[in-house]
Design goal:
With about 300 residues, the chain is an alpha+beta fold. The chain contains 7 helices and 18 strands. It folds into 3 domains: about 70 residues, Structural Genomics Hypothetical 15.5 Kd Protein In mrcA-pckA Intergenic Region, Chain A (Roll), CATH 3.10.290.10; about 90 residues, Pseudouridine synthase (2-Layer Sandwich), CATH 3.30.2350.10; about 130 residues, Pseudouridine synthase (2-Layer Sandwich), CATH 3.30.2350.10. The protein is about 20% helix and about 35% strand. The longest helix has 12 residues.
Length: about 300
């Protein structure tokens, strides 16, 4: 095979002998595992003569051109209320919609981001698994990270504070936030009804630090950029309520109205050093359009 000139996101090869596509790819990408190569095929990253091909036994003939697209999200897979932003042998990064559980609860064991990803990776190999690294509340949308092995999960969780370089949200909150930017610090605790609340007494719970900045505001609502210094359960929701401006649609923490029909919280950026390669990766999701509509 001859490797051709390429752009950074493509690898292109000329076929020199008649053989099946999977066989060709295993030879071409000899540094990758068989599972990894099959996964690349399933995700629709392989093109023969500029046409996408996912069949393992597709017959190649001399003179054909095989193009491999790098890090293409799972086009061949269909998901409900989520999409894959990035995948490699170690991690999967998704964008989750509001209304989708991250993982199962006692009440709902069916549709979750975790279950859909587990089903997806097991189509490649029945032994494949995914592992939850962190969670987003059901009604919070945005960027979320999963590991593809127990070892990678442990690396991420044990080194989370050092490896995660940016974790930011946008929050649509009630009322006009008068202070353009600020920091909220408290110690968070959970009561018997599983509701989190703040304590100003040092070490009375888990320390939580939230930074915010107003993006825009009108008489009824404020759109904030929110940066987490710590990642506690319901941290933003509690701290916005503490500020006197609960997240829109968050009845649990004092919201009085919901003009957008969903929780006004979106995980917009997750940036981290790759747990295996150390490469810096940054993923950004668009602000939900419903957050930006004029009222």
């Amino acid at each position: 095979m001859n490797k051709q000139r390429q752009n950074p996101n493509m690898e292109q090869y000329k076929v020199e002998k008649s053989e099946e596509l999977l066989s060709f790819l295993l030879d071409t990408m000899s540094n990758r595992s068989r599972n990894s190569v099959k996964s690349i095929l399933t995700r629709g990253q392989v093109f023969v003569n500029n046409k996408e091909v996912t069949k393992h036994n597709f017959r190649l003939e001399p003179g054909y051109t095989v193009t491999i697209q790098k890090n293409k999200a799972a086009k061949a897979a269909t998901f409900e209320k989520m999409k894959i932003l990035y995948e490699d042998d170690s991690i999967i990064v998704i964008e989750k919609d509001s209304g989708l559980l991250s993982v199962a609860t006692e009440k709902e064991k069916s549709l979750t981001a975790y279950k859909q990803l587990m089903s997806y990776v097991r189509k490649i190999n029945a032994k494949n698994r995914v592992f939850v690294v962190h969670r987003l509340d059901r009604d919070t949308s945005g960027v979320m990270l999963f590991a593809k092995s127990e070892k990678v999960k442990q690396t991420l969780q044990s080194g989370w504070k050092d490896m995660v370089k940016e974790r930011s949200y946008v929050a649509l909150v009630e009322g006009t936030v008068k202070k353009h930017e600020g920091t909220i610090t408290s110690w968070l605790k959970e009561n018997e009804t599983f509701k989190m609340y703040s304590s100003q007494k040092p070490n009375d719970g888990k320390k939580a630090i939230t930074h915010y900045k107003v993006i825009k505001a009108n008489n009824n609502l404020s759109l904030l950029s929110v940066y987490l210094e710590t990642g506690r359960k319901n941290q933003i929701r509690v701290h916005m309520a503490d500020l006197g401006h609960p997240v829109v649609g968050d009845k649990k923490y004092g919201s009085k109205f919901n003009p957008i029909g969903r929780l006004g919280l979106h995980a917009i950026v997750l940036a981290f050093n790759h747990p295996v390669t150390g490469e810096f990766l940054r993923f950004k999701s668009d602000i939900p359009s419903v957050f930006l509509k004029k009222r």
